[in-house]
Design a protein that fits this description.
By secondary structure, the chain is of the alpha/beta class. The chain contains 22 helices and 18 strands. Helices cover about 45% and strands about 15% of the residues.
Amino acid sequence: MDRQSSQPTLQTIAVVGLGTMGTGIAEVLARAGREVIGIDISETAARRASTSLAAATARSVARERLTEQERADVLARFRTFTDLAAVAEADLVIEVVPESYEVKQQVFRELDAVVRPDTILATGTNALSVTRLAAESQRPERVLGLHFFNPVPAMKLVEIVSCVLTAPTAVEAVTELARELGKEPVAVGDRPGFVADGLLFGYLNQAAAMYEAKYASREDIDAAMRLGCGLPMGPLALLDLIGVDTARTVLEAMYASSGDRLHAPAPILGQLAEAGLAGQKSGRGFYTYEAPGSSVIVRDLQTPLDGSLLGAGRPVSSVGVAGSGTMASGIAQVFAQSGFDVVLAARSQEKAEAAKAAIGKSLGRAVSKGRLTQEAADETLGRITPAGSLDAFAEVDLAVEAVAEDLAVKQELFAALDKVCKPGAVLATTTSSLPVIAVARVTSRPQDVIGMHFFNPAPAMKLVEVVRTVLTADDVHATVREICVKVRKHPVDCGDRAGFIVNALLFPYLNNAIKMVEEHYASLDQIDAAMKLGGGYPMGPFELLDVVGLDVSLAIEKVLHKEFRDPGLAPSPLLEHLVAAGCLGRKTGRGFREYARR
């Protein structure tokens, strides 16, 4: 075959750097029938990589995914060396050495002197400039980025990074290889973080800053993002897994490129990195682990005290829910299913009856799916009393409002609750973005007012953000936390500021995804695929924006920008234009994508 004139066949592949990532890449290649040359200057690392592959393939045999002969073949295809000269006959070299220009440039210089003229050189960087690395190579047209995600055997995404110097044939060859490995290749341009990490690390940085500001505990930040967004890991635990030092390096590169303050590494990242507290690999980072390399978290001085030490709450047997929409109905169902007597009040008796009927349908669906018995559904519905006036809240112990996200509307309702509810009743707002103190101050008892932010759909979502103001009484806080446990929800504590935990971390990430499209860096489909396949997100950012509603998203972005005054939080002009055009997402049939009308 004429290697110069046709697309190269990437059969013999070298992996330089046999840490966790390099070992994972080597495993995937060897399993896919490639001859793999593993290179590491450390004999210990090389042995560890061979041992890891042996253990992984042994597990596959035990699970009957490989035969013993197939396992032997895989192991025979992986050879390790400590000298780069061993890569001389490789069709492709993938370097995954530490994120340092000096280290990577030295590797590329040595590779230039060893490999064939047509050998493709790929860098596994997620933070450094591929263009800069290519420019210093003797043959820049054969240099590109090949960014796998950890753990490599499990993660489907591979970002293929080309620059102005990269030959299309090189891109085509590694794209085909990625598909043959069972991966999903996404072609991206050369900028720090590319797509997935470009969005992920900004979010991780904001979470670190939130923890550093003592706004919420590390446990509550992580639980909020897992339970509120369906993420596989919380951001601080993920930083520990990635490596705090690595995250800092990536963010430094992103900030140098973007100048966006959201990418300026939170000081705590530097402090932890300088102290050698890099996360799981060092045994301590944001959390403390059983041992270096362990993923088992152990208690330390930052571990929150047992919830029982909060003190006693107030007795609650009856609950009032104000509102007739999806959230109000869902919250009423949650309380009634947990044995509370519920008064569901709307603007009219008819609206209240309709809201109760909606709950009946919801319970019916649960029965049909075998999640609930008909008897339990009937008992739940029997505990709900519909009412056309807030006067029905006279004897409730807890009043929860779930009306429109409009401060004037909520203030009017809380002024009414103040007159109707008995002394000692806890008054809770489900606001997701408005200041709780602003509704508390219209009452004569701001000490009884607290935020209780449920997530939609309330019967399914486990998270409740418990938002206390500077005036909220301790026993009111204790009451709401106790109630959350009784209704089988997970409470997280946070202060009274815009976005609380989830929205303050989620919406800047969504906004940055829109900016990527505005800048023509990547398409909607590329970005959604990158975040689902590379970040483990249940939905891509544009899928989520269309579900949430672009108008709702814009309103939250505006609140965050107004509160924190950070230019990086300014809503994307594209989002504003779509909302102005009435393209609000699935509910209007068109948002970032078009949907068939039902």
